[in-house]
Design brief:
about 100 residues; alpha+beta; 7 strands
């Protein structure tokens, strides 16, 4: 049987282009880990669809702050509310989730 673990979520939000910046996705944990909020801004890739852009931003946030060795991946699909996406993640073989 697979062990299920619960994690705080990563929130992603789209920001449209301005006169000085292109479209981008903000990924943050909203301070859910009891720490100062950790944020990462990722440029929007127009070769991907909306959900794929949000997933890519969440994965990059995860790799930067939680899983630099790549032991975890975001779970698909993310939940969407009012244009924001929320993502959790799964342990890979190195993370010992099985």
């Amino acid at each position: 049987m697979r062990r299920v673990e619960t994690f705080a979520s990563i929130k992603t939000r789209y920001f449209g282009p301005t006169d000085h910046k292109g479209s981008r996705i903000l990924a943050t944990d909203e301070g859910a880990f009891g720490n100062k909020r950790r944020r990462l801004v990722i440029g929007y890739d127009h070769g991907l669809d909306v959900a794929e852009n949000h997933a890519a931003a969440a994965q990059q946030w995860l790799e930067k702050f939680i899983s630099p060795s790549g032991w975890a991946t975001v779970s698909m699909p993310g939940l969407a509310f009012n244009g924001d996406y929320f993502w959790t993640w799964e342990h890979g073989p190195e993370g010992g989730a099985e």
